[in-house]
Specification:
alpha+beta, globular, 8-stranded mixed β-sheet, single chain, 21% strand
């Protein structure tokens, strides 16, 4: 089964009410501190991710060069993603001093038609609507599940990754992101997608 088939099946199952899990069952405070559970790594060249804006403009991570980045793959039908996303929305204003940006990339098949109403209903105003309805970035990140988040320093090097949900709105995460502003060490290897 392809990743695209998994995404489609999961979206249909969620839409049909399959399973009893909901984000309402998990409070932001119940999620682990992202700074404590993310895997930190020697800097590597960031993966070649491609996605679009809500208006259909093609974007890559290079469009955000010079900024530390938190890049998150998520979907509106994913319970852990929905539980985690408010922590990104709360974190965004706290990162302005470090010039860091949060890039939540939705893999919802319906694209902006699913994400825009979700943002409105959850009062999310500080995050951009970014889209990958084909789920191509799941292949780029070599994952079959979401949420998955990567951290990229200002030089475009991936320095951390977390597969799964966490609370990103913590002092430790803010401190970590502030530390990514300076001149980073040279990347040790080139990212090679699996």
């Amino acid at each position: 089964m392809s990743r695209r088939s998994i995404i489609a099946a999961a979206g249909l199952a969620a839409a049909a009410g399959w399973g009893k899990f909901s984000a309402a069952q998990i409070a932001e405070s119940d999620l682990p501190d992202a700074a404590e559970v993310m895997t930190r790594m020697a800097p590597v060249i960031a993966p070649p991710m491609v996605f679009t804006s809500a208006k259909g403009k093609r974007l890559t991570l290079a469009d955000y060069a010079g900024h530390p980045l938190l890049v998150n793959l998520w979907a509106t039908w994913c319970g852990p993603c929905v539980a985690e996303l408010p922590s990104f929305a709360s974190l965004a204003p706290r990162l302005k001093a470090s010039d860091a940006l949060i890039l939540p990339i939705s893999i919802d098949l319906e694209g902006a038609a699913a994400v825009a109403p979700f943002y409105t209903s959850h009062g999310i105003t500080d995050l951009p609507i970014l889209l990958d309805p084909n789920g191509d970035n799941m292949n780029v990140l070599n994952t079959d599940g979401i949420p998955v988040t990567i951290v990229i320093n200002a030089a475009g090097q991936m320095v951390a990754r977390l597969d799964g949900a966490a609370n990103w709105n913590t002092g430790a995460v803010v401190e970590f992101m502030h530390g990514l502003r300076g001149k980073p060490p040279a990347a040790k290897k080139i990212f090679v997608p699996a």
